[in-house]
Specification:
15 helices; two-stranded antiparallel ribbon; alpha/beta; 2 domains; TIM Barrel
Length: 361
């Protein structure tokens, strides 16, 4: 987005951050505020109208449409609806995650600013922070301020442990500075499928002559999550594991299984979109849930193969990668590219709405 539009957008958001401003019954800004908003923006329009409407100010109308399309108002509205649950449960339930711009996963200072803006929307907003080298510092910083975090674009055990340590250090700093952490939470999201579906695994298996199978691929992701859960538990880390990017399967003796769920039953959080819920419901009683199955080890034969390939070993070992390798990991590059494409699509939509409203972009 051009810089002049970003400046306008920031000024527009700042105006509403300073006051509570309900929209009218026709979903327009209150007419009495339009001259004040106009005066706050760069290059205000000089209108000679006695009763100007929102569309009389094309730049204000375009920015308003942009805010609505961006999802900021959706996030705030959703957070508001869940606030009673949040307060009734003492902050245990009712959280809404607001994600930092995934394209800027290396820009620490910008992520700080975006996090402050998102958190200002409601006290039950949890900030989604990328598990990049810079994102680890962001988690530590936000935690020290008592701001809840949900670490995303996270695939490997080294990333998980770096984030867990950062949250622990930030939590200790917050308590030292007498920051209220009574409603603070931290979850670390392991994007299992995005780790195990990268083609580099099969390429390395062929190169190193490792008899890698579909079952091994499944066990790799499950093994990383199990090990992370165990290390966080043993180390007394305040973060909680969250599993996403699950896939149904594999087929065992002619019957479909759902190992990503059944092998990880325990004190963890699951994010299950419709593509995961529908096959899970269809399997019904065929699902083999075992209490605390998350404590059970993965097959030793798979572990032996994991240590024969760089990609899998780096993911499975707590010190398999250094911080400066996080940003160039194949799963990170793939996912950031995927997320960037999605954000670009939203921006193109916003750009079209702004142009339609007569705002120069």
């Amino acid at each position: 987005m051009p810089i002049n539009c970003l400046i306008l957008f920031e000024a527009f958001l700042r105006f509403f951050a300073e006051r509570e401003t309900p929209v009218t019954g026709t979903h327009q800004l209150p007419r009495r505020l339009l001259p004040e908003i106009n005066a706050r923006l760069a290059h205000p329009l000089a209108l000679g109208l006695q009763r100007p409407q929102q569309k009389s100010y094309p730049h204000i109308h375009g920015l308003y449409l942009l805010v609505r399309a961006s999802g900021l108002t959706c996030l705030e509205g959703t957070a508001e609806k869940l606030l009673p649950l949040f307060e009734a449960s003492g902050g245990r339930y009712g959280w809404v995650s607001g994600q930092l711009d995934p394209r800027l996963f290396t820009e620490k200072q910008i992520m700080y600013g975006q996090a402050d803006e998102l958190k200002a929307l409601s006290k039950n907003v949890m900030i989604k922070v990328p598990a990049s080298q810079q994102g680890v510092d962001v988690v530590r910083h936000l935690t020290s301020k008592g701001i809840a975090t949900n670490t995303t674009t996270c695939f490997t055990l080294p990333q998980i442990m770096a984030v867990a340590r950062a949250a622990q250090e930030g939590h200790e700093e917050a308590k030292k500075n007498k920051v209220d952490v009574s409603h603070w939470r931290a979850v670390i999201t392991h994007m299992m499928g995005r780790l195990t579906e990268r083609e580099v695994i099969w390429e390395q298996a062929a190169y190193y002559k490792v008899p890698w199978t579909e079952a091994d691929r499944r066990w790799l992701g499950i093994g990383v999550f199990k090990r992370a859960y165990q290390l966080l538990k043993e180390g007394g880390y305040p973060s909680k594991m969250l599993l996403c990017s699950v896939r149904p399967g594999p087929l065992v003796n002619g019957k479909m299984r759902f190992w990503d769920i059944t092998e990880l039953a325990g004190d963890v959080v699951f994010t299950l979109p419709p593509y995961a819920l529908e096959p899970m419901f269809a399997m019904g009683d065929l699902l083999d849930f075992r209490e605390d199955s998350i404590e059970e080890p993965i097959p030793e034969s798979t572990i032996e193969k994991i240590y024969q390939m760089p990609y899998t070993m780096q993911a499975f070992e707590p010190h398999g990668m250094s911080l400066d390798q996080f940003n160039t990991h194949p799963a990170t590059l793939y996912t950031v590219k995927d997320f960037t494409k999605a954000v670009a699509g939203v921006e193109e939509f916003c750009k079209g709405r702004m142009q339609k409203a007569g705002l120069k972009v």
